């Protein structure tokens, strides 16, 4: 009984993903969302020199800025994240 419900739910989510997946993404509430997020964003922190804080679908880059060099380093990290997201067709 439980297996039948699980298979039915998975099949309906898969059909919904096929129908809207190319435009919207993974349907909310599916178990695929968090898993795919972890897989696709695994390399986000490569090349980041400041601190990066990730939680769910939220990312923050931060660091101490005490002079122009620190400012430029933080700006480089922000630019890197923008390029990274553009390369994956994420909206910024």
- How much strand content do the residues show? 5-15%
Largest sheet: 2 strands, antiparallel
Record the strand order, biggest sheet: 1-2
Whole-number tally of structural domains: 2
Distinct helical segment count: 3
Helix content: 40-55%
- Give the overall form: elongated
Q: Determine Rg (CA atoms, Å).
A: 18 Å
Order of helices and strands: HHEEH
The counted number of beta strands is 2
Low-pLDDT regions: none
User: Which structural class matches the secondary elements?
Assistant: mainly alpha
Q: Average the pLDDT over all residues and give the rounded result.
A: 77
- Distance between the first and last residues' Cα: 44 Å
What would you say about this model in short?
By secondary structure, this protein is mainly α.
Overall description:
By secondary structure, this protein is mostly helical. It folds into two domains: 1-40, no CATH class; 45-92, no CATH class. 52% of the residues lie in helices and 11% in strands. The chain contains three helices and two strands. It has helices at 2-20, 32-40, 68-87, and strands at 51-55, 58-62. A two-stranded antiparallel ribbon has the order 1-2. A hairpin with a 2-residue loop joins strand 1 and strand 2. The protein is elongated and about 45 Å long. The termini are far apart. The model has no long low-confidence stretch (mean pLDDT 77).
């Amino acid at each position: 009984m439980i297996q039948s419900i699980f298979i039915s739910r998975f099949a309906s989510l898969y059909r919904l993903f096929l129908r809207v997946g190319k435009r919207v993404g993974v349907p909310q509430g599916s178990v695929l969302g968090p898993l795919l997020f972890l897989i696709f964003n695994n390399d986000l922190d490569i090349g980041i020199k400041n601190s990066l804080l990730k939680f769910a679908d939220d990312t923050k880059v931060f660091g101490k800025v005490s002079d122009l060099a620190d400012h430029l380093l933080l700006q480089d990290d922000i630019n890197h994240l923008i390029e990274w997201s553009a390369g994956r067709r994420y909206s910024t």
